Amino acid sequence: MSENISVQDKVILLTGAFGLIGKTLAKSFIAQGAKLILADANKKLAPQIAAEFKKLKASKQVLVCPTDVTSLSSCNNCITLALKKFKRIDVLINNAAIDAKFDKQANKVTNSTRFENFPLPLLQKSFDVNVKGLVQITQLVIKQMLKQGHGNIINVASTYSLVAPNQSLYDFGESQQQFKPVDYVITKSVIPNLTRYIATFYAKDNIRCNAIAPHGIFNGHDDKFLQNFAQLSPLGRMGDRNEFTGPFTFLASDASSYMTGTTLVADGGWTAW
Description:
Layout: E1 11-15, H1 20-31, E2 35-40, H2 46-55, E3 62-66, H3 72-86, E4 91-94, H4 104-110, H5 120-148, E5 151-156, H6 182-202, E6 207-214, H7 223-232, H8 245-252, E7 263-266
Parallel strand pairs: 1-2, 1-4, 2-3, 4-5, 5-6, 6-7
Helix pairs in contact: 3-5, 5-6
């Protein structure tokens, strides 16, 4: 492995840090010697997350920082605490996102996963986190990166940033089919071009910006979903959470120093068909 593919001593601010992929990345980065600011809106989980990293004897490497990316004061507080502890922010990973959930009883009546029935308040909620929140935390971190003279931003896109959902994936043979709702597709579709905008805007300031588009991370999905997914994926399976640490490490490291404005796709070949 190239010595450049390393996040040793990198100070990484990771949003959405308490979720499936966030925790997986955090533990991988800690094992590689990085310093982490773990930002997540779930305040109730913060003590548990802090305890987990204490068991790993990584307390000096980690700052657990409950952060709502939609709140300016919350974002500012996180950055202030990060700079107090680590003095700089080398990498920002914008992983925080929501995917609207639905009340099952209401869905039986209206099937609100269908486009024509999708509740607009849920679209606004997703937009606030997935777009506005991402822009807000990025603006604040970029101000610090400009002061320190370098920076690296990684946005988390999605396969649905690149292609429309194949709705047959969500057909489980029930009387009423479910669909991938439009809010996630709309908000994630912003990411690749926003990444290009930031990358070209700040290239001369030694600030890079790339995106990664993952898809299909196994998290206790039922057999019918797994069967549908296997039929639609060239690799014939969902990804394991640990398979994404490599692409993220590459983008966070100096090995990707000549990359900016690109979207790295890690989808098992889903978008190749």
